[in-house]
Design brief:
The complex is a heterodimer of chains A (about 375) and B (about 210).
Chain A lengths: L2 H14 L1 H36 L6 E6 L8 H8 L4 E7 L3 E5 L9 E7 L6 E6 L6 E5 L13 E5 L7 E10 L10 E4 L8 E6 L5 H10 L10 E4 L2 H43 L1 H9 L4 H33 L6 H28 L2 H6 L2
Parallel strand pairs in A: 4-9, 6-8
Antiparallel strand pairs in A: 1-10, 1-11, 2-4, 2-10, 3-4, 3-7, 5-8, 6-9, 7-8
Helix pairs in contact in A: 1-7, 2-5, 2-7, 2-8, 5-8, 7-8
Chain B lengths: L3 E8 L8 E9 L4 E5 L6 H8 L7 E6 L2 E2 L5 H11 E4 L11 H11 L4 H14 L15 H13 L5 E5 L7 H18 L2 E5 L3 H6 L2 E4 L1
Parallel strand pairs in B: 3-8, 3-9, 6-7, 7-8
Antiparallel strand pairs in B: 1-2, 1-4, 4-5
Helix pairs in contact in B: 3-4, 3-5, 5-6
Classes of the chains: A alpha+beta (about 375), B alpha/beta (about 210).
Pfam families (chain A): FtsX
Main location (chain A): membrane
Subcellular location (chain A): Cell membrane
């Protein structure tokens, strides 16, 4: 039997058996709506939780030189930035107050941080240029506080660790998770200067444990264990893994249940349809249809209404999920459609095989 | 060489059950109608289904064009049924959901022909059998006699060498029965087809060229 004839016969069969076709379409549509509006919401929630847990702030590992023992050197910052698990790494000193030199001693102090490493890791340049030695960038939000109308001017510091004056050469907005830098200025740390904090943004929160072990191995020579403070997202990573695992497991069992129940119902409908139409199938066999033809006819005959129901169900499920305020990803919806069709197809195979292997003589001779 | 013959044929529905046909050997002559007759329960219809390769004999062979085919794989037997055998059932067995024209074309689909290739022959057959005007009707919209003519047209669709008819006049009045037997006689005589009819209708037996009594 030619493929085109097979498709046409199946379509014609599906159209002429309107009640079973409508029931199959309804079952598949219900499978999709239920899956998307329940599992889809779980998937959306899982994606949101994962996104939050995996945000830049949650991927940050901070090592603090608690006693100011010059432990976090520029070399060490460089080594940390080269780790395969590292997205960005910088050394940041304690904030020091600086004032607008144009206003003088009465100016409002704003904090300034000396940064070791690539400034672009912590700041997004808004205007001007990146600073060189003795120059600074001021955050767009600190401009007013510092008494500057434009990011141009001179700031002074009384801190002996910082140069006495800075030329402001541009403005910036802080890059997550360095939002506190938005309160003031950043300057390139003097050559060889140690930092108070080593701040490492990891590529993934789940890599926290590995990263922490690698970073701490850089401090093996430190005798005093109290000299270093470590703030690590290891627990957050574990929580991430557990939450995503729990939500995923719940979603999977819901999905399998929906698909399983849907498949069973489709199978029952197809089986009943075959029993009603057994004479029709017997006639086809007598006229020369092979068992393969019968299986394909039954399979396609079920898939046509299943596709219709699946598309309607996905649209309905998306609308329902949207109204509930948690739209699942489109790939998830397409996946549900494909899985529903596979499920409907597989569930048709058993009754279709039964039809193909039923003795045609017996059904033809049954009144 | 006859298109259809059987050698040492026997069939049983259940293992160890009563055997039908008792080692029947027979050559069905081309161009003639053979009536298979006998009391109820002797296997008239069963013989037709065995000849039509829908049942596998417990002993012996069915030969089509000289080739033993009764124990061939199912797909091969289906192919032979589609290409070389035409079936006429007692109740016409037309699909109520398709038109008369589509019903006639149905066997050509299983023989792998396209709808376009089959359309002209199906219309021609319906015209020849006097039901051309009903081509677009559904089986429920035509009479029993017309339905049986459509069933004969369907059996002739693939130009088979053998036509097997199971009580084709069983549900018809004498006038329609005569019409159907006329058509089958013409199909046998003019085109050298082998026609085998399972029947207990004396009229059909009278019109047959030979009678095989079971």
């Amino acid at each position: 039997m030619r493929r085109a004839a097979l498709v046409r016969e199946s379509l014609s069969d599906a159209w002429s058996s309107k009640v079973p076709s409508a029931i199959i379409a309804l079952i598949v549509a219900a499978m999709c709506v239920m899956t998307i509006s329940t599992v889809g919401r779980t998937a959306a929630a899982e994606a949101q939780v994962a996104e939050r847990i995996n945000s830049a702030g949650a991927r940050e590992l901070v090592v603090t030189d608690k006693r100011g023992a010059q432990l976090i050197t520029p070399t060490l910052v460089d080594m940390a930035s080269r780790l395969s698990v590292t997205d960005r790494a910088v050394g940041i000193g304690s904030p020091q107050d600086v004032k607008n030199a144009g206003i003088g001693p009465g100016a409002t102090p704003v904090p300034a941080w000396a940064v070791v490493g690539d400034l672009e890791a912590v700041a997004h340049l808004v205007s001007g240029r990146m600073p060189g030695p003795g120059e600074a960038l001021i955050s767009t939000t600190a401009l007013k506080k510092a008494g500057l109308e434009y990011p141009v001017g001179s700031m002074t510091s009384s801190d002996p660790r910082l140069p006495h004056g800075y030329a402001v050469v541009g403005s910036f907005t802080p890059v997550e998770p360095f939002s506190e830098l938005g309160q003031g200025l950043i300057v390139t740390a003097p050559e060889g200067a140690a930092s108070t904090n080593l701040r490492i943004v990891l590529k993934q929160a789940g890599q926290a444990e590995v990263a922490q072990a690698a970073i701490l191995s850089f401090f093996n020579d430190v005798q005093d264990p109290q000299a270093l403070g470590v703030s690590s997202p290891v627990e957050l990573a574990q929580l991430h893994s557990e939450v995503v695992g729990d939500l995923g497991g719940f979603g999977r069992s819901l999905l399998y249940s929906a698909l399983g129940i849907g498949a069973l119902l489709v199978s029952i409908v197809v089986f009943a349809d075959i029993l009603v139409r057994r004479k029709d199938l017997g006639r086809r066999r007598a006229l020369g249809a092979t068992r393969g033809n019968i299986v394909w006819l039954m399979l396609l005959r079920s898939l046509f209404p299943a596709v219709t129901g699946g598309i309607l169900g996905v649209v309905g499920g998306i609308v329902a999920a949207q109204q509930a305020g948690s739209l699942p990803p489109l790939t998830f919806c397409l996946g549900v459609l494909v899985l529903s069709l596979i499920s409907a197809g597989l569930s048709t195979l058993v009754p279709a095989s039964f039809a193909a292997f039923t003795d045609p003589v017996k059904v033809l001779r049954t009144p | 060489m006859s298109a259809l013959s059987v050698q040492g044929l026997a069939f049983t529905y259940t293992s160890g059950g009563d055997e039908l046909f008792d080692g029947l050997s027979h050559e069905f002559a081309p161009g003639k109608i053979t009536a298979v007759t006998g009391p109820s329960g002797r296997g008239k219809s069963t013989l037709l289904y065995v000849l039509g390769l829908m049942l596998t004999p417990s002993r012996g062979e069915v030969r089509i064009q000289g080739e033993a085919v009764s124990s061939a794989p199912d797909a091969a037997r289906s192919g032979i049924r589609a290409a070389m055998l035409g079936f006429v059932f007692q109740d016409a067995a037309l699909d109520p959901s398709r038109s008369v024209l589509d019903s006639v074309m149905e066997p050509s689909l299983y023989a792998g022909r396209t709808r376009r290739d089959s359309l002209e022959r199906a219309r021609q057959l319906l015209d020849e059998l006097g039901v051309g005007a009903r081509a677009d009707h559904r089986p429920g919209q035509i009479s029993g006699g017309q339905a049986q003519r459509v069933a004969v047209a369907r059996a002739l669709m693939n130009n088979p060498a053998v036509i097997l008819a199971d009580e084709p006049t069983g549900n018809l009045d004498p006038s329609n029965a005569e019409g159907v037997i006329d058509i089958l006689s013409k199909a046998a005589g003019s085109q050298q087809r082998t026609v085998v009819i399972a029947t207990h209708d004396p009229y059909v037996i009278r019109r047959s060229d030979e009678v095989l009594s079971l």
